[in-house]
Amino acid sequence: MLLLYRCEGGNACTDDGQRALRAFFAQFPNSPLCNIPAGSLSPVVARFEEMKWPYAALLWGQVLPLETLDSAALDAFFLQQGERSNPEKLCTPPSPTPEPTGTPGPTGTPASTEASPTPGSS
C-alpha cells in the first residue's frame, strides 16, 4: 500500500503528524491471505502535495481518500483489498484436500500366528 500525505491544509508535517505516520507504519498488519509479516510488506509513506485530500491510500488501482489519518480505515482497506486485488500473487492459495481413498490391503501372505510343528514331532 502507498500512503500519500500533504502538508498544506493538514497536520501531517507537524511533529504530532509525523509521530502518527510512524505509529501507523510500525503497527501495519500482516498480509490477510498469506500472513506475510508486516515488515516485508510495510506501506510506503510519501509526501505528495498535488492531491485533493490531506491523505490518500493507493492500492492496485484503488484510492481511499481521507481527511485525517485514520489508521483503522487504512488497516481495513488493506485487509479487505491488499492481496485480493494484487495482480502479482504473493502466495499460492492452499489446494483442496483430496477425499480419502480406500486403504490398500497388505501385500503378500500374512505370517501365521499358530505355532508350526517342529521337525520330528507329531
Question: What would you say about this model in short?
Answer:
The chain is of the alpha+beta class and 122 residues long. The chain has two helices and four strands; from the N terminus they run E-H-E-E-E-H.
Which features would summarize this protein structure in a list?
single chain; 122 residues; alpha+beta; four-stranded mixed β-sheet; 4 strands
What does the model show?
This protein has 122 residues and is α+β, with helices and mostly antiparallel strands. Helices cover 19% and strands 15% of the residues. The chain contains 2 helices and 4 strands. The chain has a 4-stranded mixed beta sheet, covered by helices on one side. A hairpin with a 2-residue loop joins strand 3 and strand 4. The longest helix is centred in the N-terminal third of the chain and has 12 residues, at 15-26. The chain is elongated and about 105 Å long. The relative contact order is 0.19. The mean pLDDT is 82.
Mean pLDDT: 82
Distance between the termini: 87 Å
- Portion of residues in beta strands equals 5-15%
- Structural class call reads alpha+beta
Q: Extract low-pLDDT stretches.
A: none
Q: What would the principal axes of the Cα set say about the shape? A: elongated
Can you count the beta strands? 4
- The helix content is 10-25%
Q: Outline the biggest β-sheet.
A: 4 strands, mixed
Order of helices and strands: EHEEEH
| Strand adjacency order, main sheet | 2-1-3-4
Number of separate helices: 2
Instruction: Tell me the Rg in angstroms.
Output: 30 Å
